[in-house]
Amino acid sequence: MLKKPTTFEQQIDILRDKGCVISDENYCKDVLAEVGYYRLSAYFLPFRTATGEYKPGTDFVSVYSIYEFDRKLRRILFTMLEELEVYLRAQISYFHAHKYGSDGYLNPANFNSKHNNKQFTNRINDLLRNNSKAAFVKHHMSAYGGKLPLWAISELFTFGMLSYFFADMITTDQKHIAFSSFNTTVVKMKSWLRCCTDLRNFCAHYSRLYYRVFPAVPVNLPYVDHTNENSIFAATMALRALYPNADKWNGVFMPSILTAFYEHRNVVENEHIGFPDDWVTILKK
Q1: By CB atoms within 10 Å of each CB, which of 7, 75, 153, 154 scores lowest?
Q2: What's the predicted TM-score (pTM) here?
Q3: 116-126 per-position pLDDT tens digit
Q4: Which residues of 213-243 are buried (b: 16+ CB within 10 A; e: fewer)?
């Protein structure tokens, strides 16, 4: 049987029963009304004991401050991920279309043996159907018999679909993209793209980054080891490795993330996000 809904007053009682210090009930109620008890409860995870209660001194204001830090971090990272996604889309579509033609992506011979063309074609058709009212889709449907060039259809690709597109490319093509556009190897790029895909999905769905165990482990990244390989730091390092503009990374991303850390310096624990003590120096490109 599902749990019954609780009132804000009952939620406050539950938090107090578990050991949370709440000095201002009205403030607590306002936060619960704004964020929701269930969503906020995940940010209490670092403070939970084996019995399910909270460690002594766990303060509601501090936990909400961690929530705010997480929200800011997610917004900062999502901006950088958006720019990486646009760059990746441009690099892949330019190369593939010039080598195989505008609609060469529809020919399974232009991909490796792992490529599932039926699944890929179904996904393309789904994208066209779900975006049938978009002006550029309507134009190509009427003017070109429903075919879109890669540089147009790829505008509908998700980050994950771009990642899979790269993974399905012929090896020599993968090597060209990895080296010429990202100055890395195919193995590393595949791994880092997977990590960035997970990170992008978490950010897009406003999911918690703080104290989260990430599903993918990036390969061959400095300062990432068994102690933090599944953390937000590792995912951020994967994003750093692929992000194409060092000046913008250092001039926009770094000041933004430094500000977020400074504003919440009294509550953020580096060990809870995998960040080393010298992370500021490490994250610069």
Answers
A1: 7
A2: 0.95
A3: 999 999 999 99
A4: ebebbbbebebbeeebbbbbbbbbbbbbbbb
147 in Cβ contact with 105 (< 8 Å)? no
Q: Is the dihedral of CA 252, 254, 257, 263 positive or negative?
A: negative
Least confident of 33-47, 79-93, 136-150, 179-193: 136-150
Token pair recorded at residue 271:
């060990």
The pLDDT tens digits of the residues spanning 37-72 come to 999 999 999 999 999 999 999 999 999 999 999 999
**Which sign, positive or negative, has the C-alpha torsion 242, 246, 252, 254?**
positive
By CB neighbour count within 10 A (0-12 exposed, 13-18 middle, 19+ buried), where does 125 fall?
exposed
Which residues on adjacent β-strands are paired with residue 54? 48
Q: What does the H/E/C string look like for the chain?
A: CCCCCCCHHHHHHHHHHCCCECCCHHHHHHHHHHHCHHHHHHHHHHHECCCCCECCCCEHHHHHHHHHHHHHHHHHHHHHHHHHHHHHHHHHHHHHHHHHCCCHHHCHHHECCCCCHHHHHHHHHHHHHHCCCCHHHHHHHHHCCCCCCHHHHHHHCCHHHHHHHHHHECHHHHHHHHHHHHCCCHHHHHHHHHHHHHHHHHHHCCCCCCCCCCCCCCCCCCCCCCCCCCCHHHHHHHHHHHCCCHHHHHHHHHHHHHHHHHHCCCCCCHHHCCCCCCHHHHHCC
Environment class of residue 254 by beta-carbon count within 10 Å: exposed (0-12), middle (13-18) or buried (19+)? middle
